[in-house]
Amino acid sequence: MTNESELTISRLIAAPPAAVWNAWSIPENLEKWWIPAPIECRVDMLDLRPGGGFVTRMREEGAADFQPHVDGCFLDVVPEKKIVFTTVLTEGWQPAEPWLALTAILTFEPQDGGTLYAARVLHKNPDDSSKHLELGFHEGWGTAIAQLAELTER
Fold first, then answer.
1. Where would you tag: which of 9, 19, 139, 147 has the fewest CB atoms within 10 A of its CB?
2. In whole angstroms, what is the distance from residue 30 CA to residue 116 CA?
3. Can you list the pairs that 110-113 forms with residues at least 24 positions away whose Cβ atoms lie under 8 Å?
4. The model's pTM
5. How far are the Cα atoms of 20, 23, 53, 70, 106 from residue 12, in angstroms, in the given order?
């Protein structure tokens, strides 16, 4: 059965879950891959615990200022196994009204000596899912995951 409100993407990364986790859990590492280059990423908050804030900013090439990217909240965190965050809440479970409401379920599964990194992105309805798809979900998230692989497979 297909869920029309959900988008998924995955990739086998030739690095152990601990390395992928380190790329996710250390702000300086996350800044290197979270947004497709040449757009720059700045991590303003990465409080990896349920209710902890997740705030990133982005800056287009040549721009002076960073702009909003993600203002969210972590719902579940299991080191080296799973991260769940949403954009409909901010730090401390504060309700938010994001431009695109989503919940992302990211898993890190050991496989063939590497990590199967998978993202399930849930939207509030099929229209929002289609909008995210049209905005380049697979290209953007796929490029970011490729950058994650490049960082961790060194």
1. 139
2. 18
3. 110/16, 110/17, 111/12, 112/12, 113/14, 113/16
4. 0.94
5. 11, 15, 28, 25, 13
Cα separation, 54 vs 49, whole angstroms: 10
Q: Which residues pair with 89 in a beta bridge?
A: 95
The label of the residue with tokens 């905005």 reads 135
> If phi over 0 gives left and psi between -120 and 50 gives alpha, with beta otherwise, what is residue 92?
left
CA dist., res. 151 & res. 146, Å (int): 9
Strands 40-46 and 94-95: unpaired
Helix (H) or strand (E) holding 57: strand 53-59
What is the reported pLDDT for 2?
Answer: 58
Nearest Cα to Cα of residue 108 among 118, 122, 120: 118
Backbone angles phi, psi at 49, to 5 degrees: -155, 155
Distance, in Å, from the CA atom of 22 to the CA atom of 44, rounded to the nearest integer, reads: 17
Chain segment 111-152, per-residue pLDDT in tens = 999 999 999 999 999 999 999 999 999 999 999 999 999 999
